[in-house]
Design a protein that fits this description.
This protein is mainly β. The chain contains no helices and 16 strands. Strands 1-6-2-3-4-5 form a 6-stranded antiparallel β-sheet, with no helix packed on it. The protein has a 5-stranded antiparallel β-sheet with strand order 9-8-7-10-11, with no helix packed on it. GO terms for molecular function: translation elongation factor activity. Keywords: Cytoplasm, Elongation factor, Protein biosynthesis. Residues 130-185 form the Elongation factor P C-terminal domain.
Length: 188
């Protein structure tokens, strides 16, 4: 058992007969009244996100997890297949466990958290950013650049990303996996 002082991002806990991963947390100590911890929890079974407030000192049930590096192999319907880079064991995970499945390119390494009690995968941590090639981009209209104008572009995984007007087909761009937004153009 742990208390609210042990809460950190990425911690897996048992709460309301389900397993949740803490996405965000904030310790709040108001001037009047007891302290509390405001959290945003993501269910690892259904993918739903909920907000919850724990009072200070509240006991939480922590799940022991191991983290392993897996390589993404291929998608098959709603199942995504991964291979452990050390043991070469293959697993398939449902699409709703992944944070940004549309940004996952074959061969990408991800960190998979596995419950040590049941040996079941709990969550997949994507790299902070991915570099993907633009396969389709609408042509930019000249004279439309007074403000930060953007256009829609499709990358090689099929995801749609808003990019600046100077991005063309064939360019490689860096995308933030947490927000799915354009970061920069990559020159090779």
């Amino acid at each position: 058992m742990a208390s609210t002082s042990d809460i950190r991002n990425g911690l897996c806990i048992k709460f309301n007969h389900d397993i949740y991963k803490i996405i965000e947390f904030l310790h709040v100590k108001p001037g009047k009244g007891p302290a509390f911890v405001r959290t945003k929890l993501k269910s690892l079974t259904s993918g739903k996100v909920l907000d919850n407030t724990f009072s200070a000192g509240h006991k939480i049930d922590v799940i022991r997890v191991e983290t392993h590096t897996f390589q993404f192999l291929y998608p098959e319907g709603d199942e995504f297949h991964f291979m452990n880079t050390e043991t070469f064991e293959q697993i398939s995970l449902n699409k709703n466990i992944l944070d940004a499945p549309d940004l996952l390119k074959e061969g990408t390494n991800v960190m998979v958290q596995i419950n040590t009690e049941t040996d079941l995968p709990l969550s997949v941590d994507m790299p902070a950013s991915v570099i993907l090639e633009v396969t389709y981009a609408e042509p930019g209209v000249k004279g439309n650049t007074a403000t930060n104008a953007t256009k829609n572009a499709t990358v090689e995984t099929g995801a749609s990303v808003n990019v600046p007007l100077f991005i063309n087909e064939g360019d490689k761009i860096k995308i933030d996996t947490a927000s799915g937004s354009y970061m920069e153009r990559v020159k090779e």
